[in-house]
Structure formats: structure tokens, C-alpha cells
Amino acid sequence: MGLLAYLKTQFVLQLLLGFVFVVSGLIINFIQLLTCVLWPFNKQLYRRINTRLSYSLWSQLVMLLEWWSGTECTLYTDQATVEKFGKEHVIIILNHNYEIDFLCGWTMCERYGVLGSSKVLAKHELLKVPLIGWTWYFLEIVFCKRKWEEDRDTVFRGLDRLKDYPEFMWFLLYCEGTRFTEKKHQISMEVAESKGLPKLKYHLLPRTKGFTTTLKCLKGTVSAVYDVTLNFKDHQVPTLLGIINGKKYMADMKIRRFPVDEIPEDEKECANWLHKLYQEKDALQEHYHKEGTFPGPTITPPRRLWTLLNFLFWATLLLSPLINFACGVVVSGSPLLILGFSLFLIIASIAIRRLIGVTEIKKTGSSYGDEGAKKQN
């Protein structure tokens, strides 16, 4: 292990990274709160400011992936599709198998200039998560409880507001509803069998309501659906903790573009189209497991300096006073100050660990198999 790789595994450095993210996030959230006064007078200005504030926070996580861990993302798609990236409103369908799948999606958003304006249909519990949920609230993210009768009006209103969004947006949907685990897969395939649907090997049965509703509400705004199938070289199982420890992963993403005009408007036919899409995604994963690659030409978009420069800005702004204060505490020799500062470090480390825990597969829940969940699709 080289010196740099060793340093990346040290808790003190990781704590400093977390400190920069948390404190900068709180500052950004406060500024976002202040921008609310703009909404009644200039909604589009409010949105443009908040996309850039959100970029300043999310790009720190992208920096960890691209510069700290050195993870590489290779796209399997054609040049004609790539030329449309960042130049149209689209819906992204991504498989939900990995703890860092959202980060791989974000790094593509960043490289094509839509990270700050990226959207997601998020579960309501995330609204209560500091930094993440708060930032999403100011970004007009649509939160749902995954109970259609309760979500119907909220989802329709939230999606309708996005029709005049001034920045090109990539709207991410995890149609499976939750991350893949063997237990969830077993339950999901029981549901598939009860509905007479083909079984999937590498995915959960997609929940069609979210997709059909989003497509219907954003008709005329989004021009295409990007189907993204993600996997990793050498059967790697990436984690956010691995990224923080500087571990490098090799991500492969198969991207297919479907113009909205080619997708059926009828809700039932649209749902059938989505089921067929997931059967194709399953076939792509089968190909990857056998061959180690996806079919088609490859493109590796270069990482941009903006994520690194943004982090260095926040680190310079926040770490200098922290280090000066820490040195002052040590030099003072005051047991009370040292105890207080140590308590601060402990609380900070626990808070950061809890934020990381939000991404862990073993801590994600699912209602698959519940009668209420079955009625949603």
C-alpha cells in the first residue's frame, strides 16, 4: 500500500472530509432558506440559484468518487446518444443493486452539466435526513410514501411544477422501488408469478405506477427516457465506505435512449413497455456476467476539475479555522476545552456514520410482499 492510499484510510482525514461536507452543507441549506424570499417574485431565479447551491454540495460526493477513490465510469452507448447528454430533459431508469449506484449516476450528471438540476422520485423518509433531504426540499424534489392513495395528489402537484424548469434536468427513477437483495428478489418473483409476468434474475419486478405517472405528467417536457444498466468489473461490490477509504472501482454503464414518442401513452401499455424493458435489462446483465462487458461501443467521458476545485474551496474556508482552534485547545491545556472538543469529534463522527448508513443495503427497507404494496402496481 502506497503512502497516499494509506493516508486515505486514516480516520482523522476521513473525519475532516466529513466535517467539510456537513458544515458546508449546513451553510448551503441556510443560504437556500434565504433564497425562499425570491420564489414569489422570480421563481426561475430561485431555481437557478438553488441548482448551483446544490451542485456545490453534491459535487463533493462526486469528488470522492472521481478524485479520492479514482473510480472510473465507462459508458456503453453510441456517439449520437452522447451528443444529446445535457441538452434535453429526460427520465433516467437505473437499476438499484449497489450502495453507490446514485453516485455513478451523479458523476455522469456532473460530466454533462446537469448535476445541480438532477431530480429524483424520493421516499418521504429522506426528507427528514439533514443535508440530503433538506437540499432536495429546496430543489423541489418529489417525495412520496409509496402508498399511491396518499401520494397521488402530492406526486401530480410536484411533477406539474417541474414542467417549466429552466435548467435541463435528468429525472432519476428507481423503478424497482428499493435496492436488490436476495430476500427482496425472492418475494418480488413471487409477486411476478402471481401476476403471470416473466421472472427476472438480476432485478426486482418494476413498480410501474411511478414511471407511468412521471411520464404522463412530464409529457411535453421530457423528450426521452434513458435506460441505464450498471455493473462493476470483476464482480466488485462497491460501498460508500470503500469510496471513503480510497478504494477504486471500475463501473460500466449501458445506456439506451428511447424517444418519448415511441413509448405508449396508454397506462397499461406503458406498464407493459416497462416490464419488457426490465426483461431486456436482465438480458444485458446476463451478458455482462458471462462476458465481463456490455455489448456496443464504449465512451469514457473525462472527469472535470470543477468538483475538485469546489471541494478545495470549502476545505480552505472551513479547515483553517478548525485546525487553528484545535491547536489553541491543545496549547491551552484546559481539561474542559479538551473534553469539549473531544466530545465534538465523537458527535461529528457518529453523525457522519449515520449519513453513510442511509446508503447501506442492509439498512434499506422494502414493502415488497405486503398486500398494500401489491395493490400499487
From TrEMBL:
<keyword id="KW-0594">Phospholipid biosynthesis</keyword>
<dbReference type="InterPro" id="IPR002123">
    <property type="entry name" value="Plipid/glycerol_acylTrfase"/>
</dbReference>
<feature type="transmembrane region" description="Helical">
    <location>
        <begin position="12"/>
        <end position="39"/>
    </location>
</feature>
<keyword id="KW-0808">Transferase</keyword>
<feature type="domain" description="Phospholipid/glycerol acyltransferase">
    <location>
        <begin position="90"/>
        <end position="212"/>
    </location>
</feature>
<dbReference type="InterPro" id="IPR032098">
    <property type="entry name" value="Acyltransf_C"/>
</dbReference>
<keyword id="KW-1208">Phospholipid metabolism</keyword>
<keyword id="KW-0472">Membrane</keyword>
<keyword id="KW-0443">Lipid metabolism</keyword>
<dbReference type="GO" id="GO:0003841">
    <property type="term" value="F:1-acylglycerol-3-phosphate O-acyltransferase activity"/>
</dbReference>
<dbReference type="GO" id="GO:0005783">
    <property type="term" value="C:endoplasmic reticulum"/>
</dbReference>
<dbReference type="Pfam" id="PF01553">
    <property type="entry name" value="Acyltransferase"/>
</dbReference>
<keyword id="KW-0012">Acyltransferase</keyword>
<keyword id="KW-0812">Transmembrane</keyword>
<dbReference type="GO" id="GO:0008654">
    <property type="term" value="P:phospholipid biosynthetic process"/>
</dbReference>
<keyword id="KW-0444">Lipid biosynthesis</keyword>
<keyword id="KW-1133">Transmembrane helix</keyword>
<dbReference type="Pfam" id="PF16076">
    <property type="entry name" value="Acyltransf_C"/>
</dbReference>
<protein>
    <submittedName>
        <fullName>1-acyl-sn-glycerol-3-phosphate acyltransferase gamma-like</fullName>
    </submittedName>
</protein>
<feature type="transmembrane region" description="Helical">
    <location>
        <begin position="311"/>
        <end position="331"/>
    </location>
</feature>
<comment type="similarity">
    <text>Belongs to the 1-acyl-sn-glycerol-3-phosphate acyltransferase family.</text>
</comment>
<feature type="transmembrane region" description="Helical">
    <location>
        <begin position="337"/>
        <end position="356"/>
    </location>
</feature>
